[in-house]
Prior knowledge:
Pfam families: DUF1353 (PF07087)
Transmembrane segments: 136-158, 164-180, 187-205
Protein name: DUF1353 domain-containing protein
Number of domains: 1
Strand order of the largest sheet: 1-4-5
Keywords: Membrane, Transmembrane, Transmembrane helix
Structural class: mainly alpha
Order of helices and strands: EEEEEEHHHHHH
Number of helices: 6
Strand content: 5-15%
Largest sheet: 3 strands, antiparallel
InterPro entries: Phage_CGC-2007_Cje0229
Distance between the termini: 34 Å
Helix content: 40-55%
Amino acid sequence: MPFRTDDGRDLEELLLAQRPADGHRFQVREGFDYEDPVSGRRYEVRAGRTSDLASVPSWLWSFIASYGRQSAPALLHDDRSDVADALGDRRAALALRREDDRVFRIALREQGVPLLRAWLMWAWVSADRERALGGVAGALFLVQAVLGAIVVVGASVAAFWNPAWLALLAVPALAAAPWWRLAPLMLLLNYVTGLLAPLIVLHLVSLAPFRLVEAIVELATAGDPAGVLRPTVRPDRRG
């Protein structure tokens, strides 16, 4: 197990404190290390750092929870993201984040996160990396990722009436080729996200009425209707 305690033992427990007690952020009580099996490089997550663990909106927790087997890799990824941000150079930060995102994906698998879930988590954080650090190219990358997923959904739905529409499924693949090293990421974002989109929509259709009822009850009892969206959609500002 590449995750180890500061004194070299396998990481058998992850000690975290919820700060504040009703908030959405957690503080590492005892630091730990991670050794990348590919490069052999050792990474350290120190005690005292805070994180929201896996930054997954609460309405997607039915698919990927914010904590679990992904907790240690998520803490590692947050720490490495801070290191990249501190460089003060967008190109250098982008290069570092691409490497660190790869490490994140490997760490997820080593912690037993299912393959599809691990690759989806890697794809989403990688897409956000390109958006934040890739400049104009990053913005274009994100736009194409969204449009490609829409094409996949549209072609799949239209094929129920005419199978010929399935030919459109080749369009995202052809459009991904010019991205070279980022092409596999683009393909994953296009096809897997596109195929999952209907499931996410169905989930939201069932979740939205419950959240609405919650908000109405809060409003009727002089509570906080916006609080039904916590903890990850609306930050807890009391902390």
